Amino acid sequence: MKKKKNILFPIFALCLTLGACDEVDENERQIIIDDTNIFDDVHKVVLMEEFTGQACMNCPQGAAASQNIVEFSEHHMIPVNIHYGMYAIPTFGFVTESGTAYGEWSDPEFFPSCRMDRTSDVNSNTDTWMSMYMGLAFQIPNIDIQVSSDYNNGQARITTTLTALKDINEPLSLQLWLLESGIRAMQLEGSTYIMDYEHNHVFRAAINGTWGQPVEETLGLNEALTIENTYTLADLPDLQGKTEKESRTEGEYGEVWVPDSCNVVAFVYNTETRAILQAAETTLKAE
Length: 287
Description:
This protein is an alpha+beta fold. Helices cover 16% and strands 37% of the residues. It has five helices and 15 strands. The strands form five sheets. Strands 8, 11, 12, 14 and 15 form a five-stranded antiparallel sheet that branches. Residues 1-42 and 250-254 have low confidence and may be disordered.
């Protein structure tokens, strides 16, 4: 429900506007207007690729900056933490083949760095990330994405529906990613190694391949296309009676994926330029 608020216009301002100070009834001095949240009618969801590493002393600052944008935007920005480069530690299982490909393509010089919607330059100044987001937030998307996941016993069926909001005459690809949050693992922060740092939005896998899959159909205004993909999560080791989270706290970070902590991200991008048109996110397991 939209809130309403009263704005009291000064009588002298009305006088200047009208050229005369006619008597104004007390009840007419308040004008009701909509107090609509600035994001109520904004449907653009921005995808942020953040290049990071566990041995990067400044990377926790990047995580904090991106989380601030998530909260400010009311989840109209999706951060993805891609462990890549000289500060990423492969032995913890966060470094992936697909993540390395994205890092090599984006070629960040400093860490943490990010790019948004693959239309911005790679930027390592965390103080400017909010303005980067605001420069994209109010774009009107050409396409809408709805994504859902049906998960059971290590198998996920991902259903993505694309709806054209205008005639689309550019080559499109659909990308599906698996992210995981709530991972307690080592992280360097400043000069201190934090052994139980909470890693969130960690890129785990490209569900439909490193660069996704082409959208073969041409979509006209209001036309919809539903695409289904299946994915098998990484094989879990013998937990010897422990829960997945209990095992993780004992240091098995790379192989133990906790489905309850995983999300699926879907986005559509221009196949040629790789610029992202729209993104969406859902939990791996239905809530």
